[in-house]
Fold this protein.
Amino acid sequence: KGNGSRKLVVFSDVDCPFCKRLEQNELTNINDVTIYTFLYPIEQLHPDAVNKSKSIWCAPNRV
């Protein structure tokens, strides 16, 4: 996401409420940054996160 001069890498679990809050509230307020998001499902905490991540990885539009 983005096309800024600075780069930010985010590792996110699709079922993590803190990850969702970061993406919806905090990252939207940052300017001049390119954000790279990598899915990192934590199966021990969120058992369905792996399946959801696979669905996202295989989707034609991953945005």
Observations:
- The radius of gyration is 13 Å.
- Strands lie at 6-12, 33-39.
